[in-house]
Amino acid sequence: MIFTTSTQAISPSKSSPSPTTSTPTSEYPKFVPKAKVGKRYTQYVDGDKMVMLAPGVYAEPPPDGILGTMEDYSSYLGNCTAIKRYSETHPGGHTCW
């Protein structure tokens, strides 16, 4: 039995393709039923829904009813621990309990 080895160089264009990675889209912001949010966060909010920006972080829904993006909400309220974490990357006015 005779074995031979190939000395042919593999060019980068002929190498196997690298796996593609995609950034998952955020599930936030999203509308949530006001009834599912703690009363201390909803007592001054009209309507039947709130906007959840992150777990434990909420905002009033926009008057036009269009959800928008995270940057559209500069005022938010919620759980103090969640607010502290959220405000590190999303500056804005906030209230927490």
Fold and architecture overview:
By secondary structure, the protein is of the alpha+beta class. The chain has two helices and five strands. The protein has helices spanning 39-42, 80-87, and strands spanning 30-33, 49-54, 57-59, 75-78, 93-96. A five-stranded mixed β-sheet has the order 1-2-3-4-5. Strand 4 (75-78), helix 2 and strand 5 (93-96) form a beta-alpha-beta unit. Residues 1-7 and 15-23 have low confidence and may be disordered.
Mean pLDDT: 81
Spatial extent as radius of gyration: 24 Å
Helix-strand sequence: EHEEEHE
Spans of 5+ residues with little confidence (pLDDT < 50)? 1-7, 15-23
How many E strands?
5
Q: Helical element count?
A: 2
What is the terminal-to-terminal distance?
79 Å
Globally, the shape reads globular
Describe the sheet with the most strands. Answer: 5 strands, mixed
What share of residues is helical?
10-25%
The main sheet orders its strands as 1-2-3-4-5
Structural class from helices and strands?
A: alpha+beta
Strand content: 15-25%
